[in-house]
Amino acid sequence: MRDTQKMAVIGGVAAAVVGLAGVGVYVLVGSDGEEAQSTVAADSKAAEAKKGPLSAAEVRTAAKEFLGAWAEGDTKKAAALTDDSAAAAKALGAFRSKAHVSEVTATPEKAEGEKVPFDVTAQVAYGKKDAAWKYDSALKIVRAAKTGEPVVEWKPSVLHPKLKDGRTIVTDESGTPPVTAVDRDGSPLSAEDHPALAGVIRDIGKRYGDKTEGSPGVQTRLVDAKGKTDTVLRQLSEPTPGKLKTTIDAGAQRAAETAVKGKKKASVVAVKPSTGEILAIANSPAKGFNSALQGSLAPGSTMKVVTSAMLLDKGLASPGKTHPCPKYFTYGGWKFHNDDNFEIKHGTFAQSFARSCNTAFISQAPELKDDDLTKEARDVFGIGLNWKTGTTTFDGRVPVQSDAQMAASLMGQGGVRMNPLNMASVSATVQNGTFRQPYVVPPSVDDRTLAKAPRTMKPGVQKDLKSLMKVTATGGTAAQPMAGMSGDFGAKTGSAEVDGQKKPNAWFTAYSGDAAAAAVVPASGHGNENAGPIVRKVLDAARG
Fold first, then answer.
1. pLDDT averaged over the chain?
2. What are the tens digits of pLDDT across the range 430-487?
3. CA–CA separation, 66 and 152 (whole Å)
4. How far apart are CA 15 and CA 342, in angstroms?
5. Fewer Cβ close by (within 10 Å): the C or N end of the chain?
6. Nearest to 465 by CA among 387, 525, 376
7. Which residues pair with 231 in a beta bridge?
8. Are 331 and 362 in contact (CB under 8 A)?
9. Residue 64 burial (C-beta neighbours within 10 Å; 0-12, 13-18, 19+)
10. pLDDT at 496 > cutoff 60
């Protein structure tokens, strides 16, 4: 019995020897009980000490042991030297198998308290590709909750600083290939040549790179739970760019960029009415938020195109019929007025449209339901539907409103929100008679279904609307920027008041032939003077 106890004690001491060998502490055990008992007492003190702060030696040794086991490919041992062996084992195994890392060298640097920075040199082998991958990482040593032993606090970032929970490092050829965006004629579109398109080119590259014939090459990349690339960490072989065709018209694009250049803020978009193809996109400044496609601003009187379609459809207006345009009209407790408080006595609806008479539209509010304008915008012009343009866009908003807000929405104020893409599409719908959802990447690339408006504009309404926009472009508020234009064309101006702004946002939307465009110049004044010239330059370049 004494022999058994003695062997148990000796065995316990032997275990202590193994546990402390890493920090240079060795205990010689003899054959008598007294020495064994003194060793147990020493071990108890050591265990007691493990509850306190980590020593520099403990931090250094624990880090060295873990990094050594990782480098040797001993996943089980390395995982056991962490505070979460299950998670560590899974991640360490994936690093070898999925990232295709064949060798690892991890060199610790000087510890910073409990944190130990280290250099990693990993050898990545995939197929016939073999390359070194160098980076820096760090780990932290903590005491194990149960034993008090110094162990690595497990986090995925130990393997790589960018690795987080839910992410995996893989090496393969299934990433997203780079793309060379080209215009409608096949000529390259680069961010360097067209800064205004930089964001769009980058976005469509991410969305459609894998739909082209390009190759990403062999990449070590960070992927999410769905396998989607988060970050390319190492490029083992050069990628082959795929060609991605867009609908951009190079001539119209250059004209758009030139037209907004020099403006503190301005945006313009051109579309092709017969197809919905986006011909040009430009913003000033060129870099930053893409307000041409994603902006959300009150469109002012350009919205009267949609409102007129609704009034014509309901029989509440007709181009040649007398229509009220008083100085003031009160609705919902709010007194509305015209620019400079003008009025048109005994005038027609065409005259009111051409001069952009606010009260001519507000006066019809008592005859309307709160959702009439919302339905017209959505069901005929496609505003607010889910546009799948191929890039990120804001697709317009015409909310259901009541009282004074509903009346204000009739002239593009209230809660109505648009951008140049939306308003270019409005003019395109008038020109074509049918809403064609705008797009910059052809739907054939990914077989996506474009949005369709529930109903087509009535032929009579289209005819009247075109006549209204034509008279506005030849003898109304849009006449100056549209002067000298011939053929099938029309336009509408807008000036949207914004609280706290000294000058309104200038808007202009128009069509000419098979091209439509719209522009906004924030805080600049009237649409015909500020946004009109931009639209005209783009239309001249895009007509054909």
1. 91
2. 999 999 999 999 999 999 999 999 999 999 999 999 999 999 999 999 999 999 999 9
3. 7
4. 99
5. N
6. 376
7. 222
8. yes
9. middle
10. yes
